[in-house]
Task: structure prediction
Amino acid sequence: MAATTSSLRRLALLAIIGFFITVFFLVQKPYDGVSGSSWSQDAQSEDESSREKTPLNPDHIVPFVPETYGPPKDEILKPATTLLTSVKLAKPTNIPSHSPVTADVSTTAPSEPPAQTWSWEYTQGVIKSWVKTWPVPAIEGHWPPYEDYRDEDYDPNLWEGFLWNNEIYINSGIRLLVSDGEAELSKVEPYMPYPAYNTESWQRQWRGTYTSCEGPRGKLLNASDEDIIKAYPALPTGFPSAAIGYTNLTGFSVDAHCFDRHHRYGPYGFGQGEREDAEDWQEPTVRPDWTSVNWQKLQDKCLMKNKDRYKPKARQPPVLKPGKDLPSKLSSAPPVPQLRSPDYHSRTAILVRAWEGLPFGEDELQNMRALITELSLHSGGEFQVFILYHIEDENMDIWKNQELYKDSLHDLPRELQSISILWNSKLCHEWYPKIGDCNNFWHPYIPLQWFSLTHPEFDFVWNWEADVRYTGNYYELLDGVASFARNSSRKYMWERNQRFYVPSAHGSYEDFLNSTYEAADRATEEGEKSPWGKNAWNDKAQRPIGPTPPRSIDEDDFEWGVGEDADLITFQPIWDPREVDWTFKEKIWNFLPGFRPTFTEEDPMAANFRHSDFGKIPRRTTIGSHLRLSARQLYAMHLENLAGRTMAAEMWPATVALHHGLKAVYAPHPVWTDRVWPAWYLDAVLNANRGEDARWGQKDDSIWVHDRSHNLAGTSWFVEADFPKTLYRRWLGLRRIDGSPLAEIDGKQWEDEGMTIDLPVGENGGEQEVRVGGHGRMCLPPMLLHLVKDVYDEAIPQQVSMPPPPPAEEAEEEGAEPIPFPNERGRI
Ligand SMILES: *[C@@H]1O[C@H](CO)[C@@H](O)[C@H](O)[C@H]1NC(C)=O
Ligand SMILES: *[C@@H]1O[C@H](CO)[C@@H](O)[C@H](O)[C@H]1NC(C)=O
Ligand SMILES: *[C@@H]1O[C@H](CO)[C@@H](O)[C@H](O)[C@H]1NC(C)=O
Ligand SMILES: *[C@@H]1O[C@H](CO)[C@@H](O)[C@H](O)[C@H]1NC(C)=O
Result:
């Protein structure tokens, strides 16, 4: 007995020591790893392993662990919503009566509330009553802490109590397409979303002749079906719609096809050499030895076969080691492309960011093969894919010493070495000494500037992260997004860029544009000035390179900018950070001459660096680093950096576009959610604006405030999202355990037989045992997924029992029937 007690004590002591060591580690870490941002670029991904353990937001002493937005991993077994189901839902408090709509809503208790007609105050009242009634899970270690919001008028965790979007998994098997009754739907076909090359209408638009290129199987791609991904010509009935974004963004409908893992990745080695045959899939007969495929050679040969389609200066294979000398001829901005027909096609470089220690597993390699084949080889060289490989040691002379260069290159998988370009921060020190520091965490776009200025043959550059996946064809996505951005007007583009499109709340995309523009009109009448053309902060210091508007904004009927290629394309909204509690908004270098943050070991994030004049500097932010930048955009960023001016990475490209009068477009690609959100609530949270016209995301209630951004953790596209990891692994037939009723689905058993499970049914709640799954491999629409990593099969952990949830507070009953909080017991 005594022995047990003392060993328990020893354990407790060890635990305490461990805790202090951990805290010490957490406090120390941000400086070495400089992976401090909750949201930043590759610095954040550059040190993924430490990121998991580091306080991501340096402002928090409490570690912010993005992985655990649900219950902590080892306690997950009885997930949050299961807890909810066992709680008797308390009666919500009454709804505020200052809104004229109250009476209406309360008497009818509508199943789909007519949210568009709600006043802002009324909406806030309902949200507040939900905050009070939601039975907060009794789980510690969650960020943001569950218990912190009881007395607030919002709760960034509330969505975790909504119904799970189980239909994504239940209504997505390939066998469902056959049982839908039409045999044609089960017929998988090659998926080729490319222009009708060499046709008459194509030739009216483009110069030169498209010539088919050789693929990794050594055959011309027009004669090798095995190099082409295939799709089913429908989406299974009942697959949920995207919650956010424009399903026709690319010009191809998202609902018309679906992709399963074998037909999407089969051409790139998925299932290669597997013993068992996969249902309804033919393994390619030509099985390349992938390690010996020379992707650079294939891409260069492809370009040369198609070279008459491109500008004379783009008719040479790109140089992989351009050196770090500033090109001497650089004196003016890249010319603004003039629309001509027929014209030379533009060339776009995809720069996939990599660094020492970034793991490249089989899944990463298949994704790289997809990027190269779909974007570059099938298009005859419109794109070219590279790895931009960061060497951390800035003193390593990779610039002159060929041996060192070679040695470093050899740390990458052999298959990728031929397309890799090495760089280190020596570049920044030599090109931009006036900035004052050269940390890639703050300045991740400098190597893109270097690439662009030394490769004028490329009109555009995509900054691309290795942890993104697309279930469809990459060309369809990137060519479509470019076309969407080209078609967008400049009038009210900054307002449009701030707002999420929520189809269930806003109606058609045209309705969305209409209501966005009307709000912008009202804001203008209230005295707000919509940016139009150049907006230099300091006319003397900055020389904006963008075009002068052809007419005033009032005279423009959404014409200016239509047909003009965008200088900046983002996959998340672009918003004004000045009134938002967002961590890095004060990180501004040398806009006030000589005033810049200094980072020291004691103060690694320059936490108190600010200036009262910063509020006057117009700026814009976008979270996430998947951006397309034009040569003109990168040139403007180069000019600013030469003068020493820069800002935190999230603010920098969009702010330069704003100051220089360049065209910036947020591309509202379709995004799914892992919970079923009421339309009005999704709109209210994503487009929070303190009730002010056209100020979406830029007030103190912005979705981009550090705790509120947790609302995006259950979406398929967010740097801290968890959902994509689950979805992607299950699509690959692997298990990933989340907190949903379908937590434990895995490949084989789920796909072949299915399982019996308790699911909510009907309008009024209640659960029923339902047989789900057994419909074959998951088949998904084209989805852009971020963040995807750790692609492996997860084991089912040992069951542990959870403490019972706390009794929900009894709310007093008063007045009208309130809008019930939707949970697993019932939908509203
Ligand atoms: C494939 O493309 C090549 C080069 O453009 C062409 O010569 C050949 O006829 C094409 N083959 C098929 C089957 O279309
Ligand atoms: C999407 O595009 C298709 C085909 O062009 C069109 O029929 C459909 O109406 C579009 N949908 C929306 C929501 O715009
Ligand atoms: C852009 O406009 C052109 C010309 O009207 C049209 O053909 C194309 O489909 C549009 N692209 C997108 C993505 O809507
Ligand atoms: C929005 O639609 C209404 C009704 O069709 C129309 O009168 C109005 O001009 C539109 N507003 C804008 C800004 O397009």
